[in-house]
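new request in #modeling-help
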Amino acid sequence: MLEIRDLIVKYKTSKGSVSAVDRISLEIDKGTIFGLVGESGSGKTTLGLSILRILSPNASIESGDILVSGTNITKLKEREMRNWRGKKIAMVFQGAMSSLNPLMTVEEQVAEPLIIHENMERSLANRKARDNLANVGLGENILKRYPHELSGGMKQRVVIAMAIIGHPELLIADEPTTALDVVTQHRIMKLFKALRDEYGITIIMISHDLPIVAEVANSMAIMYGGKISEVGNAREVVTKSKHPYTQGLIKSIPNPKSSEVIRGIPGEPVSLVNPSPGCRFYDRCSFRRDICKTYDYNPAVLDGQHKVYCNLYEVGKQ
Amino acid sequence: MIEASDVKKYYPVKNTLFSRTGRYVKALDGVSLSIDKGVIHSLVGETGSGKSTFGRIVMALTSPTAGIVKIDGVDLFSLKKKDLKSMRKRIQIIFQDPYSSLNPKLKIRASITEPLKLNHIEYDEKKIAAVVESVGLKPAEDYLDRFPGELSGGQRQRTAIARAFAISPELIVADEPVSMVDVSIRADFLNLLKETNRKENLTVLLITHDLFVASYISDRISVLYLGKIVEESDKNGIVGHPLHPYTQALLDSIPVLGEGEREVNIKGEIPNPIDIPPGCRFHPRCPFVMDKCRQVEPEFREIETGHFVSCHLY
Amino acid sequence: MSLSNLSYILRRTVSAVLTIFAIIILNFILFRLLPGDPITLLYRSPALTQHQINLLTEEFGLNQPLWIQFVIFFKNSLMGNFGISFFYKQPVTSIIIPAIKNSLILLIPANLMAILLGMFTGAISAWHRGKKIDSTILGTSLALYAMPTFWLGSMLIVVALHVGNIPVEGMYSIDVLNQSAIIRFWDLLGHLALPLITLTLVLYGEFTIVMRNSLLDVLSEDFILTAKAKGATDSRILWRHAFPNGLLPLVSLIAISFGLVIGGVIFTEIVFSWPGIGFVTYTAIFMRDYPVLQGAFFLITITVVLANYFADFVYSYIDPRIRYQ
Amino acid sequence: MNPLMNYLGQLRKSKIGLVGWGIILTFVFIAIFAPLISPYNPNAISGAYYQHPSMLHLFGTNQEGQDLFSQNMYGTRIPLIVGTTAALVAVVLGLLVGLFSGYFGGVPDEILMRITDFFLVVPAIVLMIVISALIGGTLTNVILIIGGLSWPMTARVVRSMVLSIKEWPFVEVAKSSNGSSLYIMFKHILPNVMPVVFANAALSVANAIFTQAALVFIGVGDVTDLSWGNIMHFAYINGTITTGIWWYMIPPGIFIVLLTVGFIFLSTSFETIFNPRTRRI
């Protein structure tokens, strides 16, 4: 459904060029939830924005291809791309609070994609908006309300309703549960599962929260320093993690069922400004060897889907 | 060490210039809590549960509408100014956001020495370096003369901790100390807190929304819902066999790595603390609601040894 | 109308009334207690006969204790009675009211044009940030903002005289006073042209800069990205999403910028001898005609307070967050 | 990095800031060295009246036959003096009112803010004109009038910043470490409002220069001291605009625009350098 090949995205900043996404390749199957997990500064949000081509003006896709249902969207003209946004590809942003226009009613905002793309009559679009809000578990009483009158969970649902009203094939959700209470988090995750199961929408879930993603995703990738460190079946990545970074991440999450001591990963996140060649995780890795300094990011394929980008594993072998 | 009884904090709902509405936001609606010396006690609750307000009251940053807070038997809010000052030498606070808990215009050195200077405690360069290095900022001289803007989130969080540890407090109030730092850095902080607790007999009041974080380091956990404690027990009591339906729902909502999803039994959203439901304040969301729950507020009772709950089911 | 709406109106009304009250006090203090106060001037004024002085002394209680003077002054202010002009020997009101009318003829269209122009060019400037069109608009606005009104007016007069046949003084030509209404109207328009352009340009600068800045803030908000992700066209993002939000600070600026507008009006009127309140103030200063100065000051400030008061309602209507507070 | 070094370091990259400083320093230079730059004594009659600009009289001569170029050079002094001192008065007042009002809140805040609101609503220029007309616009009076009536803007801005800064955790931390109110105000809050105060101060200078010129022009300021406003005043009352003496009024106006823009640029450079989020121009 979605295929990314050797994608490079760079930001120009006053400190120099930042390689937020550095030669990333991915494949995502239709009708699945794909988790993209990483800490702050790993490049995961940039990757999401690239797929919609709505990067900020100081960022650009340097090279690589993004194929959505066979179309290479990096080659589309801006005018054509606009027809994809909100229709074939939709996005839910980090912080639902601020992604709604404070001066427009819920109804107007949810119906807007239909008015933009289908040129639909307002009354019909409004009716569809109502139906869509019902699908995400919101009643008619909020149609005429303004965003500041809604709770965080309600806003998040409104944002989701707005994203799926155009029946997109691909939905990108960037930190959809951050700043929500655990109970609401759980409900939003259930909603995403329902969207996948009932409508067959392919979903990319971008999050820093490994357990949450692991619970809903079919497959997932762990990102570090603008690179993927490990990708595969979600269960597999969590239970048979291979990359030292993934392992470190898992070891630092408290689990009330075990009495094991959690351990952080030593060191500081790598800077993406002119990074040194080789493995990005080198400075913090406890298994590092000299050859890691020249690691070329050729993945070791473990079984089928499970790939790990680390020198500890030999390319092609298990 | 801390003895809080029936602490209430109401904020009047201001609507107009002339009249108050007579309604109140009941941030804390009768919280009683006692924390022994050397214990890590967590206060767990959602946004709007009043947990941060309680922390601010313990720090004497705001005074309660009603109720008494005693520290080592001394009533915190009847202290004279001078005595409050010496009391404050014994308590330190660590805040949620490492970005705003350090003054961006002060060098790290100034931030760390501030509590020492203000409390007239003698110090020398060696002591400062030792404090800074004890939280993992090594070597100290690489950090002391920098501004917070030049440090990463994790380093700032460590600076905030070093500042709190600098005057060797007996009690630390940690308000969501890890919610804004990356997971890989979070663990170190929790271990450091635990280690200091064991070594120096430090008492910790940890305020968090994360039940798992609480369960990792706490000796005791209190679950706060709409300004009232609904359940309190040691770690195993809360995580192992939670009694209150709210605690159960919270636990079921948090995914555990490698485990499947569980059914979560809870309805609706947390009500506005202006309109606290009558009877049991959890009843509109409770899957086991009974008639009694709508009318009578349940008592906070000890069901098992050391395990308190306020619920009509027991 | 909800209860909170009502209370908002009530709050604003009380605040406006209090402000007017304070203005009366200030006015009283200014003209009674400062050196060169009008009582002494009144007695010294060679323009008045002893009989007139006695009448005025009686009317304004100038021989009474200060607090009684204030009570009389307060009543008079509310009734619009500011006494007799030293210079014109007429009630102050009869001089000021027509002047206010003349000022409004100039002020209202100039302010509206400046707001409209500022709104749109400011928005366009923000949208094309950093491009050539942005620097052009921004540069022009800054220069206009930094230009003294009277200087800009003077320069326009120089140009107009060079071009020829453009009225640069007063409201009407002397020879049209007995002509038909239509001829007088066209004559008025001719006379209005230069002052109107001057005032519009002077106000335009600030409105543009504020609109541009507020829109730049809005454009960095997340909901703009959301609109983009929905596939909205650039013009939809700008005009439907960003523009209304960017307007809010501008509206509140319009509310508090009546002071600025008044400054602009005064100096425009002086340069073009436009017989409005500003010109009246100017001549009153020149002639040391304190009753007129006092009356003009009072009416100008009251007008600004009232304008402010109504702007607040417009603002609360535009922004639902205030409406429902 | 200390703030001053930081500013100077960043300034190299800020075109706006450099242009602003360039303009301001040029005028300061002119003001100081006016006697050296001016070919004539500005008050002496140095030629026939109303001479066109020429090599002899770069900006022409006025109604008395005084050299307008020399007058404009000397006229730089008063605007700079009034601008900076009035702004200083306004900013110090505004800063103090804003700090105390915002930090302590309560009734004093309510009263101070009512007063501030009042002065924001009442058109300042009209009030200044009236007061100057009543008490006479000597140099000191004009400085005090402009300074004393321009502080509300700064007070508002500072107060709203203080209101948000005092809720920041680092303030609560300092409080819980026994920091007194004054300590917190001056050690923690003040450094964080200073960038805004600097930006505001530069704007205040621009406004004060502008206002001084307006007051002198209208005739309520000090019309005996040489200043750009004063030159324009005489240009106006002598009817030069409508009688073809076009050169009389052009230079002082351009100088005011330039100097005002200089201070606006300076203000912008303070804002962008200390608070990069607001980078705008």
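bot summary: Chain B touches chain A at residues 46-47, 152-155, 182-191, 209, 211-213, 215-216, 235, 239, 249-250, 252-258, 260-261, 264, 266, 269-270 (CB under 8 Å).
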